[in-house]
Amino acid sequence: MDRVDLNKKVSDSFLGKTLLITGGTGSFGNAVLRRFLDSGLSEIRIFSRDEKKQDDMRNALHSDKVKFYLGDVRDCNSIDYAMSGVDFVFHAAALKQVPSCEFYPMEAVRTNIVGTENAARAAVKNGVSRFILLSTDKAVYPINAMGMSKALAEKTVRSIARGGEVGTVFNITRYGNVMASRGSVIPLFTGQAKEKLPLTITDPEMTRFLMSLDEAVELVLYAFTHGEQGDTFIPTAPASTTLDLAAAINDIFDNRGNIRIIGTRHGEKKHETLVSREELTGAKRADGFFTIPNDTRDLNYSNYTDSGREMVSGALDYTSNERLLDVKGVKKLLLGLPYIKAQLEASELSEEGLV
After folding, report:
1. Is 242 contained in some domain?
2. Active-site residue, from 96, 138, 150, 194
3. Domain for residue 249, yes or no?
4. What is the domain count for the chain?
5. Is 196 a catalytic residue?
6. Whose CA is closest to 172, among 44, 283, 42?
7. Contacts for 347-353 with beta carbons within 8 Å, 24 or more apart?
8. Which of 147, 198, 212, 322 is deepest in the core (most CB within 10 A)?
9. Confidence (pTM)
10. How does pLDDT run along the chain (355 residues), one tens digit per residue?
11. Does residue 343 lie in a domain region?
C-alpha cells in the first residue's frame, strides 16, 4: 500500500479517537507522535514509568492533545486505569536489551510477558477496538531471555485473540533492529567513529536486519489497517554483517579501517530469523510483508493426531543472512537516517568552531 494511501486510511480511522502507546516515551512513541500529533485523533495517551522522559516530552510538545499516564504494565491496576476510554493501543512497553535480560531474566518475564497479558486483558475489559503488540526477530528460535520473553508475549496475545468472543482485535508486528533507536549499535559506532576510536564489533560475520524507525511505524499502521483477529505482520527487510555496518559508519565519519573485534556478548545469535520455516508454511506474502494468520485450533488433541498441516521439511527460514547489503548499500541506507544527518551536521559545526 502506498504511504499516502496508508496515512489517509489510518487518519480516517483515527478521527475523534483515543490512542494509547505503552512505553510511549521511547523511540517508537516519539515517532508515532511526530506522525500523528496533528491528525484527527482527539487524544494520545503516553503510558510509561519514566517520569523524567514524560516531563521532557511534555515540555517539548506543549500539546493539550497528549496526556501522560505514569505507571508500569506490571501493575494491572495502573494499566487498567490508563486504558479506560481508549480506542486503540500500540503496546511498545518492553525490556529490550539482550544483556540486561540475560542477567535479570525474571525482570524480562515480569515486563514482557506478565506486562503484555496485563495490557491485553485491560484492553478487553475496557472495550478497546484494536491492540497491536510490537515484537522482535529475537522471538523466533530464541536463545536469550529477551527473545524467550517476547516469544511468550506473542503467544499470550495469540491465546487471548483466539479466546472466544473477544471484542478487541489483536495483532502482532515483528521486526528486526531499528536503526539508531535507543540502545542500538549505530549510536555506539557513530560515537566511536566521531572520536576516531576503533569500532568494537562482536563478530564480523554476524548479520542483522536493518529497519528505519519510520518503517517500524509503517508496519504497525499496515497491521492496523489490514489485520484480522490474531494476525502477525512481518516485513521483508535488508540486512548486513556487523563488519559492513561498521565499515559504512567509519566511511561516513572518515574513520576508515579502525575496527576492533571483541567477541560475542551474552545471548547473541550469529543470524536473526524473522519468520521460521514452520510459520512460513501458513504465511501469506504481499506488499512487502508476511502475514501469519493465528492458529485457531483448540485444545482438542484429535486435531493434532488425526490431521496436520503442510510439511516443513522443504521450507527455509527467513533470516538476516538472506538479503545482505554491501558496504555501499549500507552507507546509502544510513545516510537517509535523520540521526546520521544530525550527527554529520554536528560534526561539521564542530569543525567550524561553531559548537
Report:
1. no
2. 138
3. no
4. 1
5. no
6. 283
7. 347/194, 347/253
8. 147
9. 0.91
10. 566 677 778 878 899 999 999 999 999 999 999 999 988 999 999 999 999 999 999 999 999 999 999 999 999 999 999 999 999 999 999 999 999 999 999 999 999 999 999 999 999 999 999 999 999 999 999 999 999 999 999 999 999 999 866 799 999 999 998 998 877 899 999 999 999 999 999 999 999 999 999 999 999 999 999 999 999 999 999 999 999 999 999 999 999 878 999 998 888 899 999 999 999 988 999 888 999 999 887 777 666 666 666 666 667 899 999 889 999 999 999 999 999 999 999 887 666 665 5
11. no
